[in-house]
Amino acid sequence: MGLILCATRGGEASFRTQEAAIDLAKKRGDNIVFIYVVDLGFLDRTAAPIVVDVENELDQMGTFFLIMAEEKAKEKGVQARTITRHGTVQEEIIEAVRDENATTVVLGRPAGSAGSESAFQAASLEAFAKKIVAETKAEAIIV
User: Which of 3, 43, 120, 140 is disulfide-compatible with 129, CB 3.0–4.6 A?
Assistant: First the structure.
């Protein structure tokens, strides 16, 4: 039995990713850890009080998304739990793979119709998946 780490951020793309991870876990008999990363890299750090407010809001929103994902998994008979991390998305996912001893990471493509994501986004996601494999030896699946 393995452990699937499923990155989630809410929205349609994440729901598809969660469903794929749940189906994979059910098929393999694996457990799931859903991860949400609060990444404030897009904010200007000079407005410290605003940063704290935004971080708290993102944290609460992430908790809501994670609870929904965990309930979906449990409804399908898959053991699941959740974690929230703070930092850079890619770094935190790789560290979570190590910390949780995950055997598989499920990543979702950006929302949109099939093939509508830019070549840059697809290449960046594929490069990240390769980095996960190289640094952790976990399997990385893009759905």
Answer: 140
CATH number at residue 126: 3.40.50.620
Residue in 76, 71, 70, 65 with CA at minimum distance from that of residue 29: 76
* Residue 38: closest CA among 6, 71, 86: 86
How much is the pTM?
0.87
pLDDT level of residue 19 (50, 70, 90 thresholds): very high
Q: Considering its fold, how many domains does the chain have in total?
A: 1
As beta bridge partners, residue 107 has: 142
- Kindly list the distances between the CA atom of residue 74 and the CA atoms of 18, 19, 45, in Å, as whole numbers in the listed order: 12, 12, 39
